[in-house]
């Protein structure tokens, strides 16, 4: 039987717009920021279920999460103001392995969220390439100074040179394209998550022909383990809608 970890309440210290996204800052309290690519379940005010977010930044005393206001839960999170408090659980899941020689960070859209903290944990400013669907969304590249940027219809994979250890996060088609180019890449996937710790089976995906809970096995998986195939088993649910 899977035990149920308890969330703790954390005050909002502020929030700021980053293009169409909102960076929500929380008091860290005794939470461990964890390994880049791990995720936290954040209470979405007024909604039944929390939403999963990877950590974007870990300034002293704070944890900051990049939120795309695409649904009622994420919009409620973006409306939080300093002094509000929400329940937070984490860090959860498996993040990126940091023992890489030539890191290249690859992000698409809101998938850039874990990359600023990842860059910091890799020791500075690894090269990074980011793809966005509009100039407004590309304003979020300010979170990763020095990144190369492309805006649709140019694909981020066009900027990936051979010989790098790729660490990627972004929409599913981008991850498949990155895996095809870079078989050793580490890829952060998304799935609908209700609990975050293995109890609800809402995040079951097909990996290497078997059904696995992404919140426990991932969300970061080696491309070599995928055989090009990660597919959520919940019908009619968009993987990009996990934090709606
Ligand atoms: Fe509940 Fe994975 S989110 S089992």
CATH architecture of the largest domain: 3-Layer(aba) Sandwich
Unreliable parts: 233-241
> How many structural domains are formed by the residues?
2
Per CATH, the class of the largest domain reads Alpha Beta
Total DSSP E strands: 15
Bound molecules: FE2/S2 (inorganic) cluster
Q: How does the overall form come out from the CA principal axes?
A: globular
Binned strand content: 25-35%
Give the averaged pLDDT, no decimals.
Answer: 91
Number of helices: 5
Give me the strand/helix succession.
Answer: EEEEEHEEHEHEEHEEEHEE
Question: What gyration radius follows from the Cα positions, in whole Å?
Answer: 17 Å
Gap between N and C termini: 29 Å
Give the arrangement of secondary structure elements:
Elements: E1 8-18, E2 21-27, E3 39-42, E4 51-54, E5 62-67, H1 72-78, E6 85-92, E7 103-108, H2 115-121, E8 128-132, H3 135-138, E9 148-151, E10 165-169, H4 172-181, E11 186-188, E12 204-207, E13 210-213, H5 214-217, E14 220-222, E15 230-232
Parallel strand pairs: 7-8, 7-10, 8-9, 10-11
Antiparallel strand pairs: 1-2, 1-6, 2-5, 3-4, 3-6, 11-14, 12-13, 12-15
Write structural notes for this entry:
- The chain is an alpha/beta fold and 244 residues long.
- The chain has 2 domains: 8-92, Beta Barrel (Elongation Factor Tu (Ef-tu), domain 3), CATH 2.40.30.10; 103-241, Rossmann fold (3-Layer(aba) Sandwich), CATH 3.40.50.
- The protein is 13% helix and 32% strand.
- The protein has helices at residues 72-78, 115-121, 135-138, 172-181, 214-217, and strands at residues 8-18, 21-27, 39-42, 51-54, 62-67, 85-92, 103-108, 128-132, 148-151, 165-169, 186-188, 204-207, 210-213, 220-222, 230-232.
- Strands 4-3-6-1-2-5 form a 6-stranded antiparallel sheet, covered by helices on one side. Strands 9-8-7-10-11-14 form a 6-stranded mixed sheet, with helices on both faces.
- Strand 12 (204-207) and strand 13 form a beta hairpin.
- The two termini are 29 Å apart.
- The model is unreliable at 233-241 (pLDDT under 50).
- FE2/S2 (inorganic) cluster (FES) binds at residues 193-196, 198-203, 213, 215.
